[in-house]
Amino acid sequence: MKKGMIKVSVLYPNGEGTKFDMDYYCNQHVSLVGSLLGDSVKAATVEKGLGGGAPGSEATYAAMGNLYFASMESFQNNFGPNAEAILSDLPNFTNIEPVVQISEVMI
Description:
The chain has 107 residues and is α+β, with helices and mostly antiparallel strands. The chain is 27% helix and 29% strand.
């Protein structure tokens, strides 16, 4: 990643009664997002939570998805018009309300 890029992190908190279908997320949802946002996405990662900071503790997040954009303007111009289609797919793989953070890459 380059300094100044915009990183959009979507975090899915773990908890009792939560479900997260990683197979659907990786094979369907990520493809949907990619087809809608196209070349505006410069890179993407998907992470599966394995554990917390203490040995044997549960991961704080079941999963994390990260999208990288060249600028805030690029993110806003491309995500905004597609937000409804992207968000309407969430019930197909999770019952978790995601936490979203938008950051600037510093290093």
